[in-house]
Write a structure and sequence with these properties.
binds FE2/S2 (inorganic) cluster; Ubiquitin-like (UB roll); 5-stranded mixed sheet; 19% helix; 100 residues
Length: 100
């Protein structure tokens, strides 16, 4: 079972492979308002994947298009509402929820 670690708070959560990353983050106890309701249309769930990026599901066209339109995006960026956990542990740094 992959372990999700949230760098900002130090919270961790054991999640089953296939769990949507945002669901694992919420289950870990983070309180994030998802402005677009998981439709890849906002930046609430934007984060950097510091560890385990390759184990996440591939980027969808919708996620790719949204990231292209955002500022502050890097090679570690993902939208947590658009990818799911694989078998490996993942460490993330939350960005969207903290930057407003
Ligand atoms: S919740 Fe809006 S892009 Fe993920």
């Amino acid at each position: 079972m992959p372990i999700l670690t949230i760098k900002n708070s130090g919270k961790t959560h054991d999640a089953a492979p296939g769990t949507l990353l945002i669901d694992a983050i919420l289950a870990a106890g983070e309180d994030i308002e998802l402005k677009c309701n998981r439709e890849a249309k906002c930046d609430s769930c934007h984060l950097f994947v510091l560890e385990g990026k390759k184990s996440l599901t591939k980027m969808t066209p919708a996620e790719n298009a949204r990231l292209d339109a955002m500022v502050g995006v890097g090679s570690k960026s993902r939208l947590a509402c658009q990818c799911s956990l694989g078998e490996e542990n993942v460490t993330v740094e939350l960005l969207g929820a903290l930057s407003g």
